[in-house]
Amino acid sequence: MRAAILLLYALLALAVAVSAWLFAPPGMLILTLAMGAVLVTLAIIDWRTFILPDPLNAVLAALGVLMVWQHARADWLDHLIGGVAGYLVLLGLELFYRHVRGIDALGRGDAKLAGALGLWLAWQGLPLLFLIAAASGLLAVLVYAGLMRRQFTTDTPIAFGPWIALSGWICWLAGPVILPA
């Protein structure tokens, strides 16, 4: 079983490397590879532990700031708004759900991850980020429930970080095609 998991991790790393090589914005291959490595690490940790570590979210945010400084200085305000808005949207959703249901549904790490990705994508990329994250998470739950014949309820914990990470990766690589300037 451990060998299968290691093989899966290796395939994820290969997929990140190949997709970065093929689709990274011009002049941003190294930053894109670093982003991908952090996103894969965050996704794996959240999948296994339901925790998105603050230091890794901070690294992703710092890489986003570096990307803006090197490649998007003219649009720095859009990226800053994206970072703040990404964080606040999921923070608001977390607090609203806690108020309505009296339980925690999203962790603060999800909001921090969305904020870090907002720095990379700018505010214009956030609707697509949240749409793809929600759709891929829902699809994964439906497939998993069907394959495993497992019942999911409103109390079943589901890691959302992997789907935010996947969505961020897709939006970063395909965003210029999907959302032309």
UniProtKB/TrEMBL annotation:
InterPro entries: Peptidase_A24A_bac, Prepilin_IV_endopep_pep, Prepilin_peptidase/N-MTase. Keywords: Membrane, Transmembrane, Transmembrane helix. It comes from the Bacteria. The chain crosses the membrane at residues 29-45, 52-70, 76-97, 117-147, 159-179. Residues 35-140 form the Prepilin type IV endopeptidase peptidase domain. It holds the Pfam family Peptidase_A24. Belongs to the peptidase A24 family. This is A24 family peptidase.
